[in-house]
Each structure stands twice: as C-alpha cells, then as structure tokens.
Amino acid sequence: MKTYRIRKPNIVVIGGGTGLPVILNGLRNQGASITAIVTVADDGGSSGSLRKSVNISPPGDLRNVLVSLSEMPKLFEDLFQYRFNEDDEFLANHSLGNLIIAALSEMRGSTYEAIQILGQIMQVDGHVYPASEKSLTLHAEYADGSVVSGESKIAEKRQKIERVFVTNSCDNEKPKPSRKVIQAIKDADMIVLGPGSLFTSILPNLMIKEIGEAVVEADAEVVYICNIMTQKGETEHFTDANHVEVLNRHLGKKFIDTVLVNTEGVPEGYMDTEKYDEYLVQVTHDFKRLREEGCRVISANFLKLRKGGVFHDGEKVVEELFRIVLGPKY
Fold it and tell me: Is the same domain home to 49 and 14?
C-alpha cells in the first residue's frame, strides 16, 4: 500500500541491474519523489542484440525501472515483461518491453524521448532518465595493464580491475549526461547508489564526467547500498570497505556519506549456484576501514531470501533510507 506524505523527499537513485527496481518500488510505496538514472552500457542478452541491430540504447535496465515505478494493472506489467521462448527463433529471449522501447526509440529517434513517452503511458510515478542519450561502451583496465571492452566481457577475465571508463559507442565524442540528469542530482535530498554490480551497473553512470562531478559536489546525502554477495570476475574477495574504496578512488574524493551493510548470514547451502552462478560468497565486513573512508556505517539485517536467491529486503532498506533523509523522528 502506498504511503502519502506532506513532505516528499527528492531521492535520486543511480545504477542498473536487478537490484535497483526493488529499491525503487519500495521508495514509490513510501511516497518519495523519485528520479532513477539508469546505465546504458549493457551489451549482453536481448539489450545487446537490440542495441546492435536497431542502434538504440540498451533497453533492459530501463524497462525494469519503468515497471518498478509503474501504476499499470498487473496484467499490463506482466505483458510488458513477457520474454519470448528460446525456441521462437527470431524473437527468442527478447522481452516485449524491450521491443516496444526499441520501436518507440526508432519512431522518435531517441531512447530518451521513448522512455519519457512510456513513462506517461505506463503511469510511472517519478522520473526515469538514461544516464546518457547515447549508448555507451564500458571498458575495464586490469592490474596487468590489459583492457577489455564490453560490459558482458569484463567479468570473464577474472582478474583484478584497476578502473573502468566509458566511451560513446557510435562516435568519438565524450559521453554526456542526458538532459535533466544534472539538475535532478543538484535538487536531490538524497542520492542512492545501488544495489547493483559495482563495476558494471553503478560506476558506468559515475564515469560520465559531469554526473560524477555533480554527485561529488552535491549537497545531498550520498548513500551506498553495499552488495550482499561478491561477484565473479568483479568483486571477488571484496570486503564492504573495498567497495567504497573503489568508488572513492574512481571519483577522486571520499564522497560516500553513508553505507548500508547487511549483517545477516545466508544459510549454508541455500544459494542456487546454477541459477545465480555469478555470485560467490558473502561480502565480509571491515568496519575500521569503512570509517577510515570517512563514511557512516549502518549495519542491519537487510537480507531477503527468495527462490534460491539472495536479495536486499526493499522494505527494510527503504525504511532506513527514510530515517536518514527525514531524520530520527521518521
């Protein structure tokens, strides 16, 4: 049930992947004024196929965010999220929503415009902006000096990542933020990073120079929701402090104000390691180093177990976010 408030805090959420919609849905239900800034560097699966064949920004993360903030009837949401079977040849593994975004992007000549139109059609409660109006290519530089290009290829090397950076996929111009993104960051009461893959969902947005600078310079509280599990080829052997160190190093400043850390253990043998094969073990804690990074640490049970998977409990996370942004009386 949705909660209505006299004061609606302006909360900007930056990221991508499957974790973001869980938080956005919880924020919507609690009556926040929401802006979602979504990565456009995905090049795998249905999104990757469409960005190559139709020359659009990858639609998958944008689709999931639209649905998480939508007031549409459940049947319409299910239809938008429907994914065609693997044996459907041409349509195999494409979701209907991705195809609709591709069609509207081609009609309007802009994925940004397509998302704004769909936001109205889907009765989206909030604003959804692709981080850039052009699709981006994500690059990773490893400890040995080698560089791999393409979000879907980065984890395959399974070496320590020194840094990531983005370039425009279709031209040599420097990546620019979508219209209204910087103003949304400036107007925010709170900026939330994650949950999501550190190197491939969160940092691609911040590596757009103007977005990274706006977040660092913002008056808003910057909150990082630390991942519960380490990820193969990205954050293997990482502590929670390692996640924050990477973010601060990429932005050149200790800009994270608060970190939300899950302290509840995942039951042994619970994870479906075939279905969720990219996740390895739980992120370990290093509260001393977190404090050295200059951030406040809020540790609690944010764990939700569902169908062999490990997720953040959206309601518990959002309750903590509101306590931060509205004060202890919330």
Answer: no
138, 187, 198, 312 from 141: Cα distances, Å: 10, 33, 15, 29
Judged against a pLDDT cut of 90, whether residue 120 lies above it is answered with: yes
pLDDT tens-digit series, residues 218-260: 999 999 999 999 999 999 999 999 999 999 999 999 999 999 9
Cα–Cα distance between 244 and 304 in angstroms, integer? 23
Q: Which of 21, 23, 29 is nearest to 5 (CA)?
A: 29
DSSP H or E stretch at residue 180: none
E strand spans, the chain = 10-15, 33-38, 127-130, 136-142, 147-149, 161-168, 190-193, 221-225, 229-231, 258-262, 279-282, 296-300, 303-306, 309-312
Q: Which domain holds residue 105?
A: 43-130
Q: Taking a C-beta distance cutoff of 8 angstroms, is the pair 106, 140 a contact?
A: no
Q: 221-225 and 303-306 as β-strands: parallel, antiparallel, unpaired?
A: unpaired
How many domains are there within the chain? Answer: 2
User: For residue 50, what pLDDT is reported?
Assistant: 79
**How many Cβ atoms sit within 10 Å of the Cβ of residue 107?**
11
Residue in the block written with tokens 């910057």: 222
Strand order in the sheet with 136-142: 147-149, 136-142, 161-168
79 and 123 housed in the same domain: yes
- pTM (whole model) above 0.90: yes
The residue type at 66: L
